[in-house]
Amino acid sequence: MKNLNRRNFIKKTSVASAGISAVTILPSAVWGAKVAPSDQVNVAIIGCRNKGFGILKNHLDFEETNCVAMCDVDRNVLEEKATEVRNTYGDSPKLYGDFREMLNQTDIDVVIIGTPDHWHCLNTVYSLQAGKDVYVEKPMANTIEECNIMTRAANYYNRVVQVGQQQRSNQIFIDVMKLIKSGKIGALRKVNIWANFNYGLGADPAMDSQVPEGVDYNMWLGPAPKRPFNQNHFHGSWRHFWNYGGGMFSDWGVHLIDMGLWAKDQVKAPAKVMTFATNNSSFNKKRDTFDTQTAIFPTKDYVINYEMVAGVQEGPYDSMYGVSFIGDYGTIKANRNRYRLIPEWDSKNEKHWAESLEVEGGKDSHSEHVRNFIDCVKSRKTPACPPEVGRVAAIHVHAANIAARIGEPCLNWDDKNNRFTNSETANSYIVPSYRAPWSLPKID
Ligand SMILES: NC(=O)c1ccc[n+]([C@@H]2O[C@H](COP(=O)([O-])OP(=O)(O)OC[C@H]3O[C@@H](n4cnc5c(N)ncnc54)[C@H](O)[C@@H]3O)[C@@H](O)[C@H]2O)c1
Question: Which of 287, 346, 359, 367 lies 20 to 30 Å from 430, alpha-carbon distance?
Fold first, then answer.
């Protein structure tokens, strides 16, 4: 971990130094002595408001990182967050409104991408082309083809890309995977996944309005279709509109379905998706996406079942979200903070197949996921959630969302040929249409 005392020391010293000026020389000397320049990692960020900024702070909490550049199309967000970086970490990043200009800055090693999902592909590919490593938030992108392009680009440019599915670095889930793979619950047959949160209903209705002062709205829209400004399509609530996100279904789906895939070491897009989705909440909120959805991803010997209900804060096993892994010998129920193993009864031997287990105390895993990324940036090893893993999780949610949007209860996916085999309508959703001057990046 970064020497936070050192950070505090910088801050406290400069406050104290109003009266004792000689002390101010110390921090940079201490800093230089701690981490050799060759081991330092210079961090930049595109999209600073919420999650991106959290991930930036996770980076800056480590000793060897420096924030050298920040970019946001909302000047208010940019200045507020840059001030926090200066005050808390003592770094003085250069500020940008256009990420393409930022990427010309040669001292940047890694770029954090915390923009809405419709921007992830362009932000990532441009960063990779500029020779940077990338931490891109999940869902990896807003369409299947963008995920394909990003995966190809990461390999083509030979850069480290970590997708922000931080449960891959969560100790509770790491331990659960070990238990499952050790055979503790026997053959894994099914995984039940659920996510129920209020925020999934979207924001209150609002009239279209003037673009707020300091916002480059055209750049916020980027490749998405032009539309008048509306607060409830903007910061935070964009995720409930298809042009920018996939709703709570994809928000949580990529995290949780990923656990079901990891348990089987399955880095494969689904061959089949069955789904039903509807909007049946009585609350008047604005969204394109669904508030109630169930999707099943069946294979011959394993079923992934994901259920989402937006607008409620309750779920099975007293948890708003979770994963229940069902094997012949027992079930493991897990979320980010705890897991419980409930063994089945072995009637032949008159005992349980395994010991009951209850483990609490998992912690937020963003920091571990970022640590893993920084380590891989240095070692050039594959990170915990590489693009291949992010892509497969994203295809699960996008395929189900496409099926739901076109009212097709079952779609068959041919991953090799990048197409649905039973619906031409579904195929029209694979590749997004970008608004000029933006175009889908081409990778050889
Ligand atoms: N890993 C997790 O658990 C987790 C949790 C929440 C959000 N996320 C993901 O993080 C991403 C951001 O979500 P959020 O809630 O922080 O959104 P947000 O709307 O709060 O923030 C997005 C920021 O990006 C900026 N932006 C938009 N277009 C830009 C561009 N072209 N260049 C520069 N800045 C631009 C916006 O002005 C805003 O400041 C999403 O992909 C979301 O799914 C991940």
Answer: 287
Assess if residue 378 is contained within a domain. no
Residues in the chain: 444
Nearest CA to ligand 1 atom 8: 51
pTM over 0.90: yes
Structure tokens at 306: 């994901």
CA of 180 to the centre of ligand 1 (A): 34
User: 48 CA to middle of ligand 1, Å?
Assistant: 7
How many distinct structural domains can be found in the chain?
Answer: 2
Cα–Cα separations (whole angstroms), residue 109 to 29, 50, 71, 136: 23, 22, 15, 14
Any ligand 1 atom below 6 A from CB of 72? yes
pLDDT at residue number 211? 98
DSSP state letters, 100-142: HHHTT-TT--EEEE-S-GGGHHHHHHHHHHTT-EEEEPSSS-S
401: enclosing H helix or E strand:
helix 387-406
> Distance between CA atoms of 46 and 115, rounded to whole angstroms?
6
Q: Which domain holds residue 311?
A: 170-362+387-427
Q: Within a domain: residue 375?
A: no
CB distance 46 to ligand 1 below 6 Å: yes
% of the chain at pLDDT higher than 70? 92
Largest CA distance in the chain: 80
User: Are 55 and 112 spatial neighbours (Cβ–Cβ below 8 Å)?
Assistant: yes
